[in-house]
Write a structure and sequence with these properties.
With about 675 residues, this protein is α+β, with helices and mostly antiparallel strands. Helix content is about 15%, strand content about 35%. The protein folds into 3 domains: about 110 residues, Immunoglobulins (Immunoglobulin-like, Sandwich); about 325 residues, Purple Acid Phosphatase, chain A, domain 2; about 190 residues, Jelly Rolls. The protein contains 12 helices and 46 strands. Helix 4 crosses helix 6 and helix 9 runs parallel beside helix 10. The chain is globular.
Length: about 675
């Protein structure tokens, strides 16, 4: 039932110039007429070494640890056991090693009866080139130790080192291929609350074991130039610096006084001297505020004059200046008029790359005067429950002799509060957002496998500005065009295809059962779905979203899903609006009944509800959560009670002005005739 992504191998070959018109190249040239046996699948794809003139004689490809057959023209094929995910490792003495991960549904190709991986571009390892890894907002406190509603916590004090290492299991292979790795550590580090908290709504502290776990995961540097470094005043700054230093991790962006806070982390990476420094974009309105001064600790305050001064200082000292900046608006889509000139000022003064964070969601990439600005990387290691904050990416950046050469955005999702590769709907959400917000700034991204790439001198290939919503293709992550007579909507639950609901030990915590249990399962072909397991057939079973949907821009919605009841029953949709501050607490499953649909059971059926919510602000409804209530027609305890759910979508239909706004185009994932409720899913 999961969406099958149609990407023919012939199309890959045509894009690479290795075949004629679409369909002209025989598929057997790749798979060699080989057939997969029971429990196996053929995986085929291409390597692209044209830009750096990379030969394939000493290159190796493995898929889930099994060596693939690599041909002289760059195409490869392997027969591997069916699995939920396929991790591709590419190595060789003359290239930078690469890792990519794919889900089975997004690769399935009907023509070759195999899994087809889009062409992956190789980068030659040459003198003066280095690869850097950057990731966004990170912490490991709060919900990591205090699981909601009695669930098992992610971190346990008794097994803390092991548990912390598990947070990085899925992302560690991506860090390991880079020469230097940096993240934004947005938390005080202390064994317990080190001092009275600052007078602010949210304060964080993470265990002192975290920096050591970061080091074991391959992280070399943390930026502390953010609004949480001074959450517990000078005492918290002190314990944070001590724990990071004890772990052997480099730091910058904060200190016990302004001199230390503005000090860059200077490091030699394969002969290239880097000076990495960090800033926070504002002082804070409380007393004492969050920035360092001559007499107190805190983060380095990055006014434009400071950005220019520190960047120039590092360049004149013989170091390649790299700035990390904590600014812009939380959950905003684009850089602000305050942050944008500061980011660009660093490039103007000689920084080849600037990395931003703080919004908890991603912004676009900008090529500015030959340098790269990543305006916001979104979350990396965080306990937020909002689904839009789970869509993110990490960034690999190549420098050549101190100049920006290439960047590769690796889509990730936050699953169980940890970073894992994004596949399926989560990859689509990450890449379409990144593509469009980058294109607004004149940056056109190209494809490399399942990642997005930009060079300092882009090639002639470019994605179309938009495409008709005919199905997400891993080969094309451009947003959809609005056709005449249609309106567009956006899916607020990109993980609803359940291809990304479980990754190793990490499992989706977004869904909550009542009078039931939840399991995320795989079919024999490897595709995923959610199973709701009622406690009894005599009473209803419920499943609902843990958090309220807060990123609401309209009042019109559609909930649709594929569902299989084992026997006849009724599914009711209930919507619970988020209570106002001060309202009395009510049950999580109590709300307004939208409607009910009777299902015959025994096979997959379509669930569909259209509904409108009251306007609360500027054409938008109040934050809400959807609740599904399932009641069987009979209560026979001997009959199967397993309810299967797949392709869950909560679609928001914006007003006409938003439909026509080009700045909103990247959001659209669904379309329907303007006078009909029949949906055409992307």
């Amino acid at each position: 039932m999961a969406r099958a992504i149609r990407l023919t191998i012939c199309a890959v070959l045509a894009w690479l110039g290795l075949a004629g018109p679409l369909g002209a190249h025989p598929v057997d040239a790749l798979v060699g007429g080989d057939k997969a046996g029971p429990g196996e699948v053929l995986v085929a794809g291409m390597l692209d070494g044209r830009r750096d003139r990379v030969g394939f004689e000493e290159v190796s490809v493995s898929i889930n640890g099994q060596a693939a057959e690599l041909h002289h023209d760059g195409h490869f094929v392997a027969k591997v056991p069916i699995a939920p995910y396929y991790r591709l490792n590419i190595g060789g003495e003359g290239i930078f090693a690469m890792v990519q991960t794919f889900g089975i549904a997004e690769l399935r190709d009907a023509i070759c009866r195999c899994l087809a991986i889009p062409a992956i571009e190789l980068v030659a390892r040459k003198k003066g080139r280095i690869e850097l890894f950057f990731a966004g907002d990170s912490m490991a406190g709060r919900r990591y130790f205090k699981a909601p509603r009695g669930e098992k916590p992610v971190l346990d004090r008794a097994t803390l080192d092991r548990d912390l290492d598990r947070l990085f299991t899925a992302i560690k292979p991506y860090i390991a291929t880079s020469d230097f790795a940096s993240i934004n550590l947005e938390s005080v580090v202390a064994a317990e609350q080190p001092a009275p908290r600052a007078p602010k709504k949210y304060t964080f502290f993470s265990p002192p074991e975290l920096p050591r776990a970061l080091a074991r995961a391959g992280v070399d540097h943390v930026s502390l130039g953010n609004n949480h470094t001074a959450d517990y005043r000078d005492a918290g700054v002190r314990t944070t610096l001590d724990a990071i230093d004890a772990a052997g991790v480099l730091r910058s962006g904060a200190g016990m006084d302004v001199t230390e806070a503005e000090r860059a982390a200077r490091v030699n990476v394969k002969g290239q001297k880097l000076g990495i420094f960090g800033f926070v974009g504002w002082r804070g309105s409380w007393t004492p505020n969050q920035v360092a001064s001559e007499t107190k600790g805190g983060a380095a305050w990055g006014k434009r004059s400071d950005v220019e001064r520190i960047t120039t200082r590092e360049r004149r000292a013989g170091y390649i200046p790299i700035m990390e900046f904590h600014g812009n608006v939380e959950y905003g889509d684009r850089p602000t008029s305050m942050s944008l000139p500061r980011f660009r000022a660093a490039i103007e003064k000689g920084a080849p790359v600037v990395v931003g964070h703080h919004p908890h969601v991603t912004h676009g990439l900008e090529i500015y005067r030959g340098g790269l600005i990543a305006h916001s990387l979104g979350n990396f290691l965080f306990d937020q429950e909002h689904p839009h904050a789970h869509v993110s990416y990490v960034l690999k950046v190549w420098l050549e002799d101190g100049k920006f050469l290439r960047a590769e955005a690796v889509p990730i999702q936050l699953l169980d509060y940890r970073p894992v590769p994004a596949v399926g709907g989560m990859r689509e959400a990450s890449l379409t957002r990144l593509y469009w917000l980058s294109s607004e700034m004149g940056t056109v991204l190209a494809r490399s496998g399942g990642h997005a790439v930009v060079w300092n001198k882009p090639s002639g290939f470019a994605e179309p500005e938009c495409q008709q919503p005919t199905g997400f293709r891993l080969a094309s992550f451009a947003p959809s065009c609005l056709a005449p007579g249609e309106i567009h909507g956006r899916n607020m639950v990109p993980r609803g295809d359940f291809e990304s609901a479980r990754f190793g030990l990490a499992s989706d915590r977004f869904w909550v059962p009542r009078d039931a249990a939840i399991d995320f399962r795989r079919r024999e072909n490897g595709e995923g779905y959610m199973a709701l397991l009622p406690d009894s057939a005599k009473k209803p079973a419920y499943v609902y979203s843990r958090s309220y949907f807060r990123d609401v821009y309209s009042t019109r919605f559609t909930l649709e899903s594929a569902i299989r009841l084992p026997r006849a029953g009724t599914v009711e949709l209930i919507v619970k609006s988020r209570p106002h501050e001060g309202d009395p607490a009510t049950s999580s499953i109590k709300g307004e009944s939208i409607g009910a649909q009777h299902l015959s059971g025994g096979s997959w059926e379509k669930l569909h509800f259209d509904f409108t919510l009251p306007e609360e602000r500027k054409g938008a409804a109040r934050a809400f959560r959807p609740i599904l209530k399932v009641t069987f027609d009979d209560s026979d305890p001997r009959r199967d009670r397993t309810i299967e759910i797949d392709d869950f979508a909560l679609i928001e239909w914006p007003d006409e002005a938003s439909q026509r706004d080009p700045h909103q185009a990247w959001r659209w994932t669904h379309a329907k005739p303007a006078t009909s409720s029949v949906l055409a899913q992307r």
